[in-house]
Design goal:
The structure is a homodimer of 570-residue chains. The first copy, chain A, is α/β, with parallel strands linked by helices and 570 residues long. Helix content of chain A is 29%, strand content 25%. Chain A has a 5-stranded parallel β-sheet. A 5-stranded parallel β-sheet of chain A has the order 9-16-10-11-12. In chain A, strands 22-23-26-25-24 form a 5-stranded antiparallel β-sheet, with helices on both faces. Chain A is globular. Chains A and B meet through helix 1, helix 4, helix 9, strand 22 and strand 23 of A and helix 1, helix 4, helix 9, strand 22 and strand 23 of B.
């Protein structure tokens, strides 16, 4: 029997649920309401719109075949009614009606439903910073706000910008402003790393270093105290400095927009997300919810998590569409897959970073490998940096993060692991992971296999490692410590370091270690160095065989240290 | 207690097993023997060496840190002894010795072992074609043969070449000869498609068309009868034609090199592969085997399969190395992941193609989707072509194949699915697959999700499809059939077709279908057309709602037809 379906919110989840449902039940009626005038756009494209890579906002609102997804489009091609500029005020679950109000003429109206879908999305977290009402202080709520930002930028109003928050959106916007518009861009972040909670401090530092090389300034561990200006923003005052600014963009995260659900008495979590089943039903079986307004289950920890992402919203929308039509589709949760492109590098992750893993109570280690992303003899190749987070004892893989210049190469490795994380895979599953192999795409023993092998060796106590941050600290303290740096590469690589730091640095190529063992400095802790951490690992084994276990292998070698931003030859 | 390990074969599996074992048991002794003079090289790099992309053979023999992997390298850096130019003649399993003989001075010697490893590799399949002994007729057995081929090519001896076999190696070599050396290159294949057994006929045709555009000629379904020439090859005679040739390269597959194992009474399969356990033990627990000389289990069918690939050999080598040291590593099998780059396109696959699935007794369908590999509003993007093979009834995913210009994008999608295939996943697992999302890498509803959604719709009977080959056939017979071609795109796209074929082709944009339903030709089977198959699917649903179920949706739309090589406007 044909149904009446009302959908609140028409950006990502709503349209997907509506279209899927209508394809399954063409006779049923669907009304979508949205308080904004612009609907069904690619919100994740906003940074590219601000940068100018995407030239008009309409491109974010169009289909791949260049039709604008407006009210007429939904009516003609999908047989779906859309009410824009219309806010949902309240739900009467007994009567099964939604009270809506026009944001233009304030007229109210009741819509009755058989099934209701909430796709109310998220709203930007607002910090109570004095001066937030000044002109030029923005948060990126929606496409209209993005249009306003771009208008000011394009009018030349902005010479200096301050971004608050070094999460994904903050960094993307920072690139947008600096790269194409040449705006002097500063990023203030209260945590002590960029992309907090997503990648490890070491990898975060590599990202930061790359962005600094592209003229973005970072102030980490700093708190914004107030914004100053007459009518327009002029200065950002942190607890450590004052930054001039013609524009401020707040990008400190988003929270679920669940007021309507809460007012209707639906089950909402303490963190504000609407609680849904795997079928994406709320606590009222006639009401579905999905997208940025709901919490879903972390497939790593089994606890509720929050991932406001257009991709998840789309897939959830399809699940809801199927279930509206009497189907039995499920959305089981997420591992939190992530990718971002920042200037020339791309960073991707799935599951837990080492810090997040520890915070969740896991006893975990992380293996870090630097290797070419293709066969090393193949002419076109790039170094890739991959980190695997593994639980001690069980060897369970908790997460993976990667970074490199070949974005699709990085994200491809992450995507190969992400779908398996929910199966509680262990390192051996990735050691033997069957990636498609040809020299233009991978090494015979791919970096992904290698990072799992490395994790296994660390867990077995055979590879005793330090990361670039520890190396930097130890290097800083080299005069006051009992550590010595043993370069296991061939002489050509080691020479400039030995020449500059003869008291701390010695060349002893790994292949000559046995023959020249007498030359290994005694009574010193040895930091073993090579280009990527492979030869130094071999050296560590040989030294252990000769009785020297006071050695530390620098994971990722000098390649990692350089990417991290430390240049010993400068 | 230190052990004596002897390893026969030192190309891929052998060195990996040796090095892994020595890192775990440095006190044990390892001897590798190989009948060739060159060892431990990247055999998969041979086509790139022939093309000139890799300029010297030594590059294929070097580590990523530019050390040549010769006997000295293994002795100095790995503490492993290598005997090159040394053939293993026989194994005495009672005495635990291997009889070896120098290929130079014919001297024999017995090597005793505690554990023996067989990494004897494969040999090229030889067709009994008269004239095979002529100069200039090659098969690509090993690096020495590749050097001989390249020498002749570089000396300008080759103006015309014929490749026998259109499998992966044949196609790679064809590109090598044609692209950089400008050799007129012809490929003869006995089957009626390129890459037989790997991709579907439709996708194979797209590959062929792309290579034809790059001046390679194909003769499919043709059998080579003889080679003619005085001392050197001059002509290749097939059952259909005579081709001039200065060089012939036979690339008709390889078979396991298991003579030594068979002679020693080890269990060898009817197809010639050494039979091994998951621990990679042969029927003699003191003898391990891996790489191209063994059969492994297909994780799709559960039957033995044969995948001679350097990547599998390397991973198996590590498993053997671990087990030699008393570990308990396993190699469970393979799904047959595959990727190849051919000129500007890359083709990747995992699991079964539609033809292979049917041959294995599955009742299967294939869903085919064409979509941008990135968000459609992102400026840099490419069309990707993805095919999912699914079992009817269960919805089990049996295989996936992809093709596109962005190689890493294609292989990334395949690699995201391949590791899951062994878990007997169904379409819903891929519909909801959590790929890392950002506009430079994927669409919010990625092509991978989309192809699973499409498969689901086909299985549900909602999307009734035809492929490009059927379209081509129906188009060919358009005058004598009762079919009509309904173009569901906007007028601008449809106009040239309507203009050229007014009696067969009609424009009726999908969004106007309801209003203009009266214009839909009656009493005709309708072939629904759009650019990629999405709008035509919407049209199919609308038409079904209006009572018209005599419709066929062209999967992949005109984009697929064009890629397939049919240009209706030519």
């Amino acid at each position: 029997m044909p149904q009446n379906v009302v959908i609140v919110g028409a950006v990502a989840l709503g349209p997907k649920a509506a279209c899927r449902f209508k394809r399954l039940e063409p006779e049923s009626r669907v009304i979508m309401v949205d308080r904004a005038n612009l609907i069904s756009y690619g919100g994740c494209g906003i940074p590219y719109f601000i940068s100018g890579d995407v030239s008009t906002a309409d491109e974010l609102r169009s289909t791949s075949f260049h039709m604008l997804r407006d009210e007429k489009f939904f009516r003609d091609t999908k047989d779906i009614d859309v009410m824009t500029n219309t806010e949902a005020i309240s739900i009467d679950r007994e009567k099964k009606t939604v009270l809506v109000q026009s944001t233009l003429d304030r007229k109210k109206q009741e819509l009755s439903y058989d099934k209701l879908v909430l796709g109310t999305g998220s709203r930007p977290r607002c910090l109570p910073i004095p001066g937030s009402q000044l002109q030029g202080v923005f948060s990126v709520t929606d496409l209209n706000k993005a249009i306003a930002i771009k208008t000011e930028v394009a009018e030349g109003k902005v010479g200096k910008a301050v971004i608050i928050g070094a999460g994904a959106i903050g960094l993307e916007i920072a690139e947008s402003l600096a790269d194409l518009w040449g705006i002097e861009t500063h990023v203030v972040e209260i945590m002590d790393q960029v992309l907090p909670g997503i990648v490890s401090p070491n990898m975060a530092r590599m990202v930061q270093h790359h962005m600094e090389e592209n003229d973005i300034s970072f102030y980490l561990g700093e708190k914004v105290e107030r914004f100053e200006g007459e009518t327009r923003i002029e200065k950002v005052v942190t607890d450590k400095r004052i930054l001039d600014a013609d524009m401020v963009i707040m990008a400190v995260g988003v929270t679920p927009n669940s007021d309507l659900a809460e007012k209707a008495g639906l089950n909402v979590s303490p963190r504000g997300g609407i609680v849904v089943t795997k079928r994406l039903e709320t606590s009222d079986p006639n009401i579905y919810a999905g997208g940025d307004c709901v919490e879903i289950i972390s497939l790593i920890t089994g606890k509720p998590g929050y991932w406001p992402l257009g991709s998840l919203a789309n897939r959830q929308g399809r699940v809801i569409g199927t279930n509206l039509a009497g189907g039995n589709a499920e959305f089981e949760g997420a591992v939190g897959s992530f990718v971002i492109k920042l200037f020339d590098i791309s960073v991707a992750s799935a599951g837990l970073s080492i810090e997040s893993a520890k915070k969740e109570g896991f006893s975990a280690i992380s293996a870090f490998v630097v290797q070419f992303d293709r066969a090393h003899f193949y002419p076109k190749k790039d170094l890739m940096y991959l980190e695997l987070v593994v639980e001690e004892g069980t060897g369970r893989v908790l997460g993976i993060q990667g970074l490199g210049n070949t974005g699709y190469g990085v994200v491809g490795r992450i995507n190969a692991v992400a779908p398996m994380l929910k199966h509680k895979i262990v390192t051996e599953d990735i050691s033997n992971l069957e990636l498609a192999y040809a020299p233009p795409f991978s090494a015979a023993m791919d970096i992904l296999n290698a990072v799992a092998n490395t994790a296994e060796n660390i867990l077995a106590g055979k590879n005793r490692v330090i990361e670039p941050d520890t190396f930097a600290e130890w290097w800083e303290k080299r005069d006051s410590s009992n550590r010595f740096f043993l370069d296991c590469r061939e002489w050509g690589n080691a020479e400039p370091f030995v020449g500059k730091y003869p008291e701390h640095w010695k060349s002893l190529p790994q292949g000559e270690l046995r023959a020249r063992f007498a030359e290994v400095p005694k009574d010193k802790d040895l930091v073993l160095i090579c280009n990527t951490g492979i030869r130094s690992y071999e050296a560590q084994i040989t030294l252990a065989q000769m009785g020297r276990i006071d050695t530390y292998n620098l994971q990722g070698g000098m390649a990692a240290v350089k990417k991290w931003g430390l240049d010993l030859l400068e």
